[in-house]
User: What shape does this take?
Amino acid sequence: MPRGALLVGLFLAIAAAAAPPAQRVVSLNPSLTAMLLALDAREVLVGVDDYSVKVQPELAGLPRVGGLADPNLESVAALRPDLVAIVPSEEQRDFRAQLRALGLPVLELDPKRFDEVLDAILALGAAVGRAPAAEARVAAIRRARGEIEAAVRALPRPRAVLVLQREPLFVVGRGSFIDDMLAAAGARNLGAEVADRYPRVSLEWLVASAPDVLLDASDDPTPAVEYWAQWPSLPAVAAGRVVTLGAGEVTLPGPWLDRALWTLARALHGAALPEPAR
Amino acid sequence: MKVLTRRRLAATLLGFAALALGAIALGLVVGSSGLPLADVLDALRGRAEASAAADIVLRIRLPRVLLAALVGGALAVAGVLFQALLRNPLADPFILGVSGGAALGGIAMLAFGTALGLGAAAVPPAAFAGAAVATLLLYALSGAGTRFSSTHLLLTGVVFNAFASALIVFAASVAGLAEGTRIFLWLIGSLSSARLELVGSVAVFLALGLVAALPLARALNALALGEEPAAQLGVDVERTKRVLLISTSLMVGAAVSVSGLIGFVGLLVPHLLRLLLGPDHRLLVPAAGLGGAAFLVLCDTLARIVLGGRELPVGAITALAGGPLFLLLLRRQAGVGGR
Assistant: This one.
């Protein structure tokens, strides 16, 4: 009975919309944690994963419930959350089922593309009673994207590689939110020609692909310019266009994609990029 | 079995040397970027300085091909020696726990080195130190100065490997996500971090192993009859065992320290060669060095091109190719009524 199903669905949607906002939230992912902080929902957080604290040191006082790969069920349950926010990665998929078996409400968000990150901000905002803040944040990100797309339209599109890790070498491939941002910021992402998401590539590929700009978001202690100087045949090295990106500055699918977009645009175009209208 | 004449020895080894050189040449010419042959030759002649082609041929492919040859040779020779020493056809270079020690040293450095401010360059020395410690421990525990039995040696190795892997799991659990991928590559075996500086050190230890093993080839032939008959033939069994234990362990330690645990080379190549050449170690040991080199260079060349610009760890190739090939060999051997 499709009509019956529709009615039930409608009822559920209304019930969800009318559900009281969550008061005690456990976040098991640093990007979701960052979204809650950005939406001014710090006080609803009652526990986070270890990695969230690494990214957001100001949360050091909060109870921790384990790493991304091995969250501790007992610690989560002991916090009596009314919402557990997770990204159902391989590791957390089993964990989700265990949470559900305990009757704990789970909000799973798995933003992969740029627009999905924005949807995740909205969904999380709605769940914790911060819908207006979420809408404002998303609007700011959309505005930044529009401004940047307009600003780079007349500029040349540099051939770029964004390195996530040096040894072994991982780069940003096709169909991730970072790939979307590189396109919006006016780059041709060479990694997108290799494979989906975040491929491990060979050094031979990197040297042969000859990027104009090399963006390094790895957390290796050796400075990027110094490290890549060992490959002077790379056009990016020869032209001095190796740019260090801070940890998580563009690689976290979090609430500050507007900043990430500007960071990328500046790294790609340098002085040629007009400053944002304030 | 054919008698081993000087002439047959020379002809066979020349053949295997040609095979190894052919594999090395192929490894230099072929790669994911599809560089034209003319560019490769220019780079090799030094006519393409500071170009992408020169970097690809001389600084990316060359160290990798040379390291693959050395690691493959070391693992195959160590396989032949361990199988003879322990009189166990299933013995491989990793069986005595040397790999466990090397892996533990390397992985501990991978997991905690970044925190100590040490880069990836510190990993091979740490792994080699682990292998050396494991070798000394093995030597001390299994013999304690008296004569030591092969069973004793095997059991010590198995237990040591299990102990090391428990510590590796601990290190991997504590390490971050980035270190996790490096540990995974280490365990499956990969040559992607090959650098020219590493080639020299592995070459020294491979040479050391060969120099120690070749004069003992005759003793190894006698050992195949059993320890007592060998002793009656005038072989100093204990000394042979000790020399081989130390030299092979250092050889394997050097190989593992730069490439991780590449499986099947030390099992497949020696068995294939025994089938082809017979059981004489005067021929088997040097042939394994050359044959192992050719095998691993070919496998790594495949690993470099099969996914285009992406990398595949060579350990996956040796296991994928080696597993079925080994079973086939085993079946053929059983079919003709061999041992």
Chain A touches chain B through 30 residues (CB under 8 Å). Chain A has a mean pLDDT of 88. Strands of chain A lie at 25-27, 45-48, 83-86, 106-108, 159-165, 170-171, 188-189, 213-216, 242-244.
